[in-house]
Every structure is written in C-alpha cells, then in structure tokens.
Amino acid sequence: MKSRLPGALLNLLDQATRQSGLATTLKTSIIQLILDGVIAHHERLPSTRSLANDLKISRDTVEAAYQQLDAAGFLIRRTGSGTFAVSPEKPEAWTRGFNAKPATVGLSRSILPPLSVRGTDIEVAGGVVDQTDIHPFVAAMPDIDSFPLRVWQRLGARIIRSADRSLLMYGDAQGYLPLRDEIWRYLSTYRGVRCDTSQIIVLTSSQQALTLVANLLLNPGDLIGVENPGYHGAKLAFLAAGAFLKPLRIDNEGMVVSEIENGDVPVQAVYVTPSHQYPTGATMSPARRSALLEWSATTGGWIVEDDYDSEYHYEGQPIASLQGVDGSDRVIYLGTFNKVLFPSLRLAYLVVPKPLVKPVVAARTLLDGQSALMSQVILSEFMKGGHFSAHIRHMRMLYKSRRDLFVVNLANHLGEYVTFNPPTGGMSIACFLREPFTEELTVSAATEAKIELPTLRRLYLGGRGPEGWLLGFAALRPEIAERAMALLARTMEDSHKS
Amino acid sequence: MKSRLPGALLNLLDQATRQSGLATTLKTSIIQLILDGVIAHHERLPSTRSLANDLKISRDTVEAAYQQLDAAGFLIRRTGSGTFAVSPEKPEAWTRGFNAKPATVGLSRSILPPLSVRGTDIEVAGGVVDQTDIHPFVAAMPDIDSFPLRVWQRLGARIIRSADRSLLMYGDAQGYLPLRDEIWRYLSTYRGVRCDTSQIIVLTSSQQALTLVANLLLNPGDLIGVENPGYHGAKLAFLAAGAFLKPLRIDNEGMVVSEIENGDVPVQAVYVTPSHQYPTGATMSPARRSALLEWSATTGGWIVEDDYDSEYHYEGQPIASLQGVDGSDRVIYLGTFNKVLFPSLRLAYLVVPKPLVKPVVAARTLLDGQSALMSQVILSEFMKGGHFSAHIRHMRMLYKSRRDLFVVNLANHLGEYVTFNPPTGGMSIACFLREPFTEELTVSAATEAKIELPTLRRLYLGGRGPEGWLLGFAALRPEIAERAMALLARTMEDSHKS
Q1: pLDDT per residue as tens digits for the range A14-26
Q2: ipTM score for this prediction
Q3: Is B286 exposed, middle or buried (0-12, 13-18, 19+ CB in 10 A)?
Q4: What is the largest CA-CA distance in chain A?
C-alpha cells in the first residue's frame, strides 16, 4: 500500500511555509546580512511591496518579517521616508528596554563562534534591567522601608531554625501546597479569580510566567497582540520565543479590542494588563472586557492577563479579574509577590485552565526545576498569619496618599513640561511631554541633576509613540520626590535658557 | 540605486531553507499529522529515501526530521524493519525521562486551542521529574541526613534576623559578588577552572544553565552532539530549543570524540560530562579530552562541560576540568549546589568566556530575572566559613565507603542479574542486565517489592541501548540498601519461578 503521507505533507508544508516559516527565515536572513555588513548601517531597505515582488513571496510575509525586525531593533521604519537597517555595532540606535544602556554586541564574530539568532536578538535587546536601589524616579518599585521586615525575620528565623530535613529535599514542582492554598484564598477573595488550588503554579517571577506562556502557546511566527505602549519584559519574552507582535492601541478604556482583528494574519493570543494598564494606568472598561472575552471565545485565542499590581487600586472598588468572568477557559492569569513584598523574594504564580497545568509544570521543570522551598514556606506562614493582607491594606493607603501628593507637586513643579492623568492605581504615573520638550533634552537635564527619568516612548513598539516619562511614586518619600521635582525643574529651566 | 538585497536574500533563503528550516517544518508537519490521526499509531512511515523522493527534497533533510521525531518520541526506528509512528494518545510507547510516568496529552485539541509545537513536545516528554523523598534506589540524590543543617540554620537565622533592607531589593542579576568570589576560589582551587569572578554567573539550577546555553548558542535545526547514553534533562533542554541531537557513543574512556565528525551535517556544540559520565560513570581519558578540545579549536564548536558531581571522585586525583585546559575560549562550564548541598536550595553557576557574559546575563533576566538574594548570602557565608569544603571532604569519604559496600552487596545479592563496573566517582552506579532478564520484568518485580528501579535504556536516544538500571547509592544507608537488594532478589526469584 502506498503511504498517504507524502501528499498530506506536501499540503501541510506548503501551508506552514507560507504562514510562518518563511517570515522567520526571511527575518533571520536579513539579520545575517546586517551582521555580515552586506547591508550597511542606516542603509535604506526596499519597501515591503518591492521586496515581496522581487522574492516572489506575499507582501504579508515581508511585512511580518519587517515588523519582527523592527521590534527587535534591526530596522527603523519611518512613515514617509522608509525603512532603514540598524547595525548592532552602532549602539546609538538602541532604545529598547527600560533604562536600557546602549547595547553593544560584545561577541566578536571573527573570534568566537556566533550566538544563535535568538541569542543575538537577546544580546542586542539587553534583557530586562532591574534597578538595585531606590531613587527618583525609578518606576514600579515598592517601598522597601514599609515592608514588615521584623515579622518576616521572626518567621524566617523560626522556620529556618526548626526546618526539618524534608525541607531540604525537592518539593512539589508545582509549588508548596500550603502556599498554593493561601494564594487561592487571596485570589478568590480579592481578585474574583475562579480556580482551585490544583490550577495554581508557583514560579519565581512574572518574567518566568511570561516565558513559559510564550513557549507553550506560541509557535515561531505566531502573532500575539500586545498593548502599545506596553510592558517591555513581556514583549521581550514573546520575541525570544520567536513570536511576532501585533501592537494594540490603548485609550482611556484600556486596550482597543477591535484592533485585534483588523489584519489578515490571525492573532493567537493577547497580552493584557486590565487592572492598571502598563504604563498608562488605564483600567480596562467593562465593555472592552466583554469584547475581549468574546473575541477569545469566538476565535479560541488565549488571553494572558498580567495582574501585576492589581493590589493597589485607589478609586472605588477594584474590578475583578478577567479570569473570573471568562466562561471559556481561555484566560491565563499571572501575578507576582516580588513587587508587592520585596524584589529579591523571587516568588510569583500562574493560574491556568486545568488542561494546561501538566504542560506548564513540565515546561517549568525544563527551565529551572522548581522554586526554592524555604521561602515558599516562609511566605505561606506570612500569608496565613494575616500579614500579607495587612501589608497590602497598609501600602494601599500609603501609596494612595503618596500618589495624591505626587500629582499635586508634579503639577506645581513640572506642569509646564508635562500633562498627565492621575492614575487610579499602581505605582507609577505616565506623563506626556508638552511641545517643544523632548525626552532627549529632559533626560539630559535630569542626568545633570543626577535624577533618573525613565522615558515613555521606548515602551511603544519600535519606539514610535509620544515622548514622555514614566515616574515611580510608590517607593519615594514625598519630600524626596518633591525635592527631586524642584531640582529637575530648575535644571530644565537653566538648560532651556542656555 | 537598485538594492542589492533581493539577490543576497534569495541566496540565503534558499540555503537556510535547505539547511534547517525545511527539516523543522517537516518535523512539525508530521507531528501535526500524527496528532490529527492522519497517521495512525504504529503506522509504518516511508523510508527516508522514498519520502525524500516523493517530496523532492534532500534525504539529509528527511533524516534530520526523522531523527528529531525519534528523539522526541514521535517515531520508533527499528533497524531492518522500518520506521513507525507513535501517537501520544498511546501512552505505553513513552519511555523518555527518568522515572517518567506514562505521558498522556491532557490537552484535548478539540476543546482548547492547541499548544505550540514545542509545548506539545514538552508535554509529551513530561519534563524533568525530581524525586521528593529518598528511597531505594533513587539515582543521583545526595544524603540529606549528613548535611550540616545546624550550621546552615545558625547562619541562616543570623543573616535573616540581621538582614538590612538592601537585601530586599534586586541584587546584581549576575549574582551576589561575594558568592561569585567564593565560587571562583573553589573552582580554581579544586577544579582547575581558569577564570575570574566576572565570568561566573549565578543561576538556580544546572537545568537553567542548559536552557540558557541551548537558546543562546543553538538555532533551531542546529546539531548538538550528546553523550549516548546521557543526561535526559540536557537532551530535553536542547530539544526544547529546537536543536537536533547527534548521539555520541560512550566507552570506558568516555565520549568517543571521533564520532563527532562522522556525518554530513556539521556539529555546532557538544555536551559532555567528563568527570563522571552520566550515567556510565566513565571518566574521560586525557587523549579524548585533547581530541575534543582539538575538534573545538579547529571547527569553532562549543563545548558544554557539565561538571555536576565532580566533587565526588574516589580513586586517585580528580582530573581537572576541560575548561582549565582549553586555550581557545570554547568551553562553557556548569556546576550546581543543589546536588552537593541540598536540592531545595536552587543555586547553581555557569562559567563562560568573557564575550558570553553579557548575552547570558541578558537571557537569564528574560527567563526569571535573578536568583533569590537571601540564599546567596547564606551560601557565601557558608563557603567563607569553610563549611562547604569540609562538607565535601566529609561526603566524599562517606560516599566512597557506601560505594564500596554497595558494590559488594550488589554482587552478592544481584550478581546473577546484572554486570557492572564500580564507578570511580559520583553518586550512582550503572548496571547492565544479563540475558534473559529485561527492564520490564525486573521493574515489575521491583514495583511489587515497592522498590524504585530507575532504568537505563531510556537514557539512550530513542530508547535504543542495552537494558539495565541506574542505582543511586549515595543517599542510602548501607543496611537499607542491602535490605532492598535482598528483597529485590527474592521477589525476582519468585517471579522467575512462577
């Protein structure tokens, strides 16, 4: 009997290549030509139409490859003037990632064997850079001074002193069960998450959650919708998995859901921060939430709900999670303790539909096995003792009062430079620069005043968005924040005069 | 001016597709046909020659795809009788991974959107399963009872009680500097590693090290040489990164280096456990070490040196690491504290050539940010106080005496079933079953006696290798090990009779 395989394969191969394989190969090839110097720094590339014609492939494929190259920083696309190559040896062009230093490709290709394509992408993008101390105006940083360190020390010392040897062994790779119970209690009480303990997976960080989700759900070349502007760490995780990003506009109701389907290529998943959109702070409206769940139920697309600082909502009742409203088991929910308690803790969690539990845990064992057991035990005792919810209540009041003072001082000292809406939650505030002020000028003034000014535009895909700042207010004592604002205003005035 | 791009791209695209893209697409397509039921369980597939003919592609491409499918468990290739499909819905076919439960694809494709191809691969393979307690004959497990828990508790309680708030913040993403200093001191003194502190990166586990290395150095479709038999966690990490595995034979001098270049497709990297090969225990001979370094220097291929239990060498002087002898900056060295101290600790390290430090740290921040700071501080104090080297000295003597008793008892009780060579180091011993005994029969007898018998054949690529066991001896008190052996022998005798 002749095998049916070749015919079936020919169909599939053709389809698969058309859909994604070719775009990935095209992207890889262009990167290689840039690295090899065949395409020069700032050389103008053909339009998608003309390249598609020359290569006899579809324009969609070229568009997908250009988009990915753009997001990875290998291209700059300027409306009206064209598309230009960016060589990683020319560091001035790199603006990706928060607080990113200009990246250089340290790996000399002539001396050492080259990195893989994704390795080069990652090196060029520079990873996720976290701040190691608190100073004005580091964004999304908790107030370490208010953490109940004494309680943690007492619990921690007691647990470590009385640790029996079973605590030294491998634990449950899905997470310490008493901790999963506490997380379940918290999420179902405060976030309206509907799940049972068996759906909760303890991880080290939301970054790990995003990496897992990206690798399990997305094939290279798949399209994921991301908020634009949006969280850089998520975008880097999706890009590292070989996915393409589809930017979705943000307005004051959050993500513009109708944009998900406005292209030819189907979107496989959407990444969303509905509680307080990062970085704009917008809370997703009920209508948009329904529309997103509707999209997901209809198309089978996944929703990745990053509820990273939902604990801090200052106006009225917080809105329950999308996960709790979803009736189709399509929402993957993630949260972290590293921002709410302290960054060096390294504990976070995923809540997934039941059929995903096994593959997520398996994939997690491939990444790094499991989370450290001792800190899981300490945290579960901390939560069981009521310290977690007490801490959140305390911090919510503290951060709310800091936000209130911050926006007043911001308007006073820097109102002639920026416009902003007071955020209804979260730990940072997005400010938009008034004409004619630019990120470049204001950052240079801030640097002179030894103040860090996290910028906004790089949180837009390809750096194409309005100029502005994302200022952290939660970790700063009000008098320190105000002093920094006054100093910044003075420096900017001086530099404007000169 | 007409762009030179299209011509250059056409060349590259053609080449890239021929080399790897097509094999990956072919693999993906066959998996889809198996999952969709178009190819039935145990259906015979066309030979590589005939499929290559039918699809009008090169036989090398089909061979690469079949090899990857085989390693991932979607095919069984039997010399002489052909190649057969394996459906993941038929769990009896899965033997991959240590102690792997029969895997089932829990994700119903009709109800939920499908996992990505790599997600499906990972779910089917089942991840790396670590044992949560010690019992005969769990392999590669340390003796928790001998860990100086009191010292650790005292140090830990002191550090956590006196922790200042800077310990709560993000630390250096590369690792806590005093810990890197201690690791440097240990590696240069005891393992002959030549590096400085700036080349050491603190991670959570060797699994994380392997995942990082796989993603940074290997493109999908690249070939990495792996020891056969070899460590399953490494193979899973390379497969998850889309690499193809080239099996390299092991003899009593370790990896047979001459096999690296016996194919058409160039090998990009080699994964090796030279101190005590996993699982055979063979120490790589000086001649083979030279040959491997020579291969690397000549071809530019990377060497991934996993020195996971080099601490435990029982006969004569331990041989220094490959890293220390390498003159070409091609060796990536990894080690872990989780096996030497205790599994729930979650600390390990990579030593990389200087140009790789930045990309590895960047990639690590994308995976999970950084390692927990508190345990890094405790470990660095533990090492600084001399407790680490004292512990290793103590365990080396203890494990050596356990090995000596274990092999005597093994010969007495189970000598009629297996042959073995006493390992010169490490924590496990590989045993080969004598005719006519099989893994299936002996495991079923062991299960009856409530004894775990980790099997050997699944550590061979595609499960094609001799049948046997890999028995852990380090964590077991000799009287417990002997009792289990006697019980096992009795049960096997009974089941043999009946």
Answers
A1: 555 554 567 777 8
A2: 0.80
A3: exposed
A4: 86
